[in-house]
Amino acid sequence: MTPHLAPGNRQSLAGYSPQHFLWQQQGAVGVITLNRPERKNPLTFDSYAELRDLFRVLSYVDDVKAIVMQGAGGNFCSGGDVHEIIGPLTGMSMPDLLAFTRMTGDLVKAMRACPQPILSAIDGVCAGAGAILAMASDLRVGTARSKTAFLFSRVGLAGCDMGACAMLPRIVGQGRASDLLYSGRSLGGEEALSWGFLNRIAEPEQLLDETLQWAGEIASGPGFGHAMTKRMLHQEWAMGVDEAIESEAQAQAICMMTQDFQRAYEAFVAKQKPVFQGD
Hints:
single chain, 11 helices, alpha/beta, 2-enoyl-CoA Hydratase, Chain A, domain 1, 2 domains
């Protein structure tokens, strides 16, 4: 069941049952599981679109404060399905190809516009569009055996896919991004950690639990403030320092009007830990 959520109509995802991946809500944390383990969880035309629509809907959801994305069966995501996407693309016209590439880019836009922080739990293969999903997340927890590859050049395409040339250099630096996007080589877990692509590494059997714990810690924080932080991190890429400082002044003044800010002050005075509610 896909809920219909109109702008301004704050709703819950209770009962939401997607067709092309799994959705589970654990407290204030929503868990997306790419669930085609027999083929290392590739994406299809339909799963791209359904993920895009979910991230758009999350802007209007009150009871989800953080998102965890994972893959089933020891791999994150192997990218676009060779038989269900790559093959059909070779026979499409230019207008249809452009509609497809814009749709996949819209998924990244929806992830960045989604106010909830997104944490990817990355094990095994994380390739192509799967690497993009990881890149577009806010935080990444991996394993030593994870292998992340922006392998577009390996299939005769450019590395500039779904925002990679804009976003990846900001995560790992221009030179390292160039290495990955020109070569299409795999980035192992330890190297990804040292480069800053991964924020943390966990043992495979503990990966989901540690990611969920981190997501839970974030979800217990000031939800409005976290959403503002995410928005500013994204918007300030295109700003000069003076514009960024002014934007942050405005953003912080808005956050000072929230009840969470009042709660934090009252808890400090009472020598207690604040319980944030996101309003």
